[in-house]
């Protein structure tokens, strides 16, 4: 997906229809071309944790939610995603 966004020159608005935190995590991963394993490594958590967050099987603690939000804001493509998370 990162190459598509680079080719288009913008992030399609349809990607921002994600409402739940789980969907937002998945969208962030796809936009940046990350696997669950890669995102887990960058976040310092087990890959199964990312899978459980995305599937809604585990609720994210407030501390981890804050950390995840900061991570997403700091790793957004040209700041495009900052207002959407």
What does this structure look like?
This protein is mainly alpha-helical. The protein has one domain (2-84): 434 Repressor (Amino-terminal Domain), CATH 1.10.260.40. The protein contains five helices and no strands. Helix 2 crosses helix 4.
Throw out a few tags for this protein.
85 residues, mainly alpha, 5 helices, 56% helix, globular
Explain briefly what this protein structure is.
The chain has 85 residues and is mainly alpha-helical.
Low-confidence stretches: 78-85
- Give the mean pLDDT: 77
CATH topology: 434 Repressor (Amino-terminal Domain)
Question: What is the helix tally?
Answer: 5
CATH architecture: Orthogonal Bundle
**What structural class is derived from the secondary structure elements?**
mainly alpha
Task: Give me the count of strands.
Answer: 0
The CATH superfamily bears the name lambda repressor-like DNA-binding domains
Shape: globular
Main sheet, how many strands, which sense, barrel? none
- Domain count, please report it: 1
- The fraction of residues assigned to DSSP E strands is under 5%
* CATH classification, class level: Mainly Alpha
Q: How much helical structure, as a percent, in the residues?
A: 55-70%
**Element pattern in H and E:** HHHHH
Radius of gyration: 12 Å
Distance between the termini: 19 Å
């Amino acid at each position: 997906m990162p190459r598509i966004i680079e080719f288009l020159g913008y992030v399609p608005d349809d990607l921002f229809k994600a409402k739940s935190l789980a969907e937002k995590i998945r969208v962030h991963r796809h936009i940046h071309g990350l696997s669950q394993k890669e995102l887990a490594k960058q976040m310092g958590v087990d890959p199964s944790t990312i899978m459980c967050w995305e599937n809604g099987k585990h609720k994210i603690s407030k501390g981890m939610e804050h950390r995840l939000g900061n991570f997403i804001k700091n790793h957004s493509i040209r700041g495009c995603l900052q207002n959407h998370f």
